[in-house]
Design a protein that fits this description.
- This protein is mostly beta strands and about 475 residues long.
- The protein is built from no helices and 35 strands.
- The protein has strands at about 5-10, 25, 35-45, 50-55, 70-75, 75-85, 90-95, 105-110, 115-130, 140, 145-155, 165, 170-175, 180-190, 195, 200, 205-215, 230-235, 245, 255-260, 275-280, 285, 290-295, 300-305, 315-320, 330-340, 345-355, 360-365, 375-380, 385-390, 395, 400, 415-425, 430-435, 445-450.
- The model is unreliable at about 15-20 and about 465-474 (pLDDT under 50).
Length: about 475
């Protein structure tokens, strides 16, 4: 029996109660592979909305019966969905509510292989009030189940300032958002029977947990292309704080911080990162310049930890240049990349402009010096919302967004755009984004990109992750 392998992970973060109009779009890091399974957990406003979940394959998710686990607690709803035996090429998931509006706040999505084509064994949920050791109980019926758990702290809306989390016995963290209070983890239960998945937190808060046990099999595929972004963590800056404390399980050899920050104080300075530190220790360095605009004193940056020392228990601190209460429309997208060169930095570029006519937004152009690497990009807009990546073809936007956005900053990516592209050659590439609403120009904007190298001879095979699963994981 094969062991499930994590293929990709992405999670969002928010700072305040979310925007509540229109369908929500979740964009993945990479196209999915045929036969694998997607798992989606998210926290939103109660009551639980009647959802239709689709993706760009055109096949709806099975959102009835055992395919959905819902737990409503104190004005919050915590939901879990899964889609087995997926088609290749899925990169966008759409959440559409029924009558009225719904709040889609924080989400996490994982893709696994080596499950069966119809993998559901059992699922469960539990409300855990005022505890540091939340859990739920299930009884599996098959040896070797993959057990996936999503936890939501409904004590407060944001800026919780939680300490570090510890995964449950035999489990591996997928993400742990210390500021907004969500966590996901997975484990393999070797022998069927009763089990109580859970984790340990540092504060006795109120936790809603949902989980699912999926049967192990041989369905699905493993990527062959590296370097590759395997995990993406969105870290949001808490209001009135000079720091972002993070906990990010990593296993790649390159970590990249992609920052877009704003400072709405008057008077204000650019909302920039001055340093990043981590345990295990790494040399974090800014690549390129601060670039931005005096409008909202917004700033873009790239930071890297190259030839990185990584860990499933990595923690760290991002230091921000100021601490005003207006520094809250700011996100650091932290990427865990496998298969990069030991000295991966190639080149960077940045530009800015003003768009006064509605339509696609053409931003930064960058020319890598080596083939088969990876390019990361960002864009800040003063109005409207960045949606999908129009070019380069084959690239991926990584920001969640709302289809009827009016440019409200209180969203997953604060209306800005984040993208990646694996460059097959050394041709110049321009990043072009679609904008919503389509009739709204972005006004002032700025954008940046960084090109990163593969090792000489290519990045090599895609590695399995978690040593706890007897494999050779973020």
């Amino acid at each position: 029996m094969a062991t499930p392998v994590l293929i990709q992970h992405v999670n969002s973060s928010v700072q305040q109660i979310g925007y509540t109009s229109g369908a929500a779009k979740i964009q993945l890091l990479n196209d999915t592979l045929a036969g694998n399974t997607l798992i989606l957990g998210f926290q939103g406003g109660a009551p639980a909305p009647t959802l239709t979940i689709t993706d760009n394959s055109g096949v709806a998710w099975p959102n009835a019966g055992a395919a959905q686990v819902a737990l409503t607690t104190s004005g919050n709803v915590t939901l879990l969905f899964y889609k087995p035996n997926i088609t290749a090429g899925i990169n966008t998931i759409t959440l559409s509510a029924g009558a009225g509006t719904a709040q889609f706040l924080q989400y996490t999505v994982d893709e696994f292989n080596n499950l069966t084509a119809s993998p559901l064994d059992v699922s469960g949920s539990a409300d855990n009030a005022g505890t540091t050791t939340p859990s739920y109980s299930i009884t599996t019926t098959t040896n070797g189940d993959l057990i996936w758990t999503f936890g939501n702290d409904y004590t407060g809306d944001d800026a919780l300032g939680l300490g570090n989390f510890t995964a449950g016995s035999g489990a591996t963290l997928l993400h742990a958002d210390k500021n907004c209070g969500t966590l996901s983890q997975y484990q393999i239960q070797a022998t069927l029977g009763a089990i109580s998945p859970g984790f340990t937190a540092t504060a006795a808060h109120n936790w809603a947990l949902v989980g699912i046990a999926l049967k192990t099999g041989t369905a699905g595929a493993t990527p062959t292309i590296t370097p590759r972004v395997v995990s993406l963590f969105q870290l949001s800056a808490p209001p009135s704080s000079t720091t972002i404390a993070f906990q990010v399980p990593t296993q790649g050899n390159l970590l990249v911080g992609n920052w877009v920050g704003e400072n709405h104080a008057v008077p204000a300075t650019l909302a920039s990162i001055t340093s990043i530190s981590s345990t295990p220790s790494n040399t974090w360095q800014q690549r390129g310049n601060n670039y931005g605009t005096s409008a909202d004193f917004a700033c873009g940056q790239f930071w890297t930890a190259e030839n990185a020392s990584t860990s499933l228990t990595m923690t760290g601190t991002v230091t921000i240049s100021n601490a005003t209460s207006a520094v809250y429309h700011s996100s650091l997208y932290l990427y865990d990349i496998i298969g990069a060169a030991t000295a991966p930095f190639d080149t960077n570029a940045e530009t800015n402009g003003t768009q006064t006519v509605a339509g696609n937004l053409t931003t930064v152009s960058i020319t890598p010096s080596t083939a088969n690497g990876i390019i990361l990009a960002n864009v800040w807009v003063d109005a409207a919302t960045v949606a999908t990546l129009n070019a380069p073809s084959g690239g991926h936007a990584m920001n969640g967004y709302y289809t009827t956005s009016n440019g409200n900053d209180d969203q997953w990516a604060e209306t800005n755009g984040f993208a990646s592209y694996q460059n097959p050659n050394t041709a110049a590439r321009s990043f072009i984004y679609t904008i919503v609403p389509a009739a709204t120009p972005t006004n002032i904007w700025f954008a940046g990109a960084i090109a990163l190298k593969a090792p000489a001879g290519g990045g090599g095979p895609f590695p399995p992750f978690d040593p706890r699963l007897n494999l050779v994981r973020f």
